[in-house]
Amino acid sequence: MLNNLISVSSQVGILFILIATGFICAKKKVFTDESIKSLTGFILYLVTPCVIIASFHREFDSSMLHKLIQCALLAFGIHFINIIIAHSVIRSKDVDKKIVLQYGTVFSNCGYMALPLQNAILGSEGVFLGASFICVFNLLTWTYGLVLMSGETKNLSAKKIILNPGILGVLIGLIFFVSPVKLPPVLLSPVNHLAALNTPLPMIVIGFYLSKISSPEILKDFSFCIAILFRLIICPLIALFILKLLNVNPFVSTVVIISASAPGAANTTMFAAMFNRNTKVAGAFVALSTLFSIITMPLIISMTL
Hints:
By secondary structure, the chain is mainly α. The protein is 76% helix and 0% strand.
């Protein structure tokens, strides 16, 4: 287990250096709020789909398809358990804060933080399976997450769900995986180059938001600390227990746990702003859970290897 811990820690350490780069750039005013917003859109709408498409661009393998479906089912189960936990333990008289913390407890950063780590530890097959977790994340965040944050169901939209970049990336990737159709090298090469940006750019964005934490006072808030504890430790450990109980394939377990143990979803802040919730709490939750995940993720992930 010590070797596994060292291996995972080294990979997380690499991500931490990239996060630190974003932090320093923010302090030196290299990036502004507007430029980071544009960069986030670039990652979301172009880089992430390219990562998924590149990982799916392989010869059909029935065993991998089985693992993909297995990952998706496990992702649904883990999210539903997280929803039950979040609504049971996250309490606050401040409704806006409570909703933001419930959202952050349920949804992990399974794209920006998990995909680079899955690629570093498990290679393209890890990204291939991790894409199914992202697909489930997108389905639930644009349904349950939307209703939670908005407080009403009228914002639900089939168009938003289907045309989400993560879902589109999986649908396009599946066509390449299950059929003999493949991209010619002149198109595949740019896709691979854009996919390679998925490790440095999201980490720089996370570093930027970490730089926005002006005071540690938020850590004195009990509900905030409980949400951090459940997002980073309790929920991933419950997921790990279930995977062990079901005797899930170790490779699949590692993929799922990397996604499940990631810090709060980056779009927690975006959704909070969209529906006039507490953006300061949202930003602090994403930033601090990311900071603490540098310690918690290696410990939890090493238990699966």
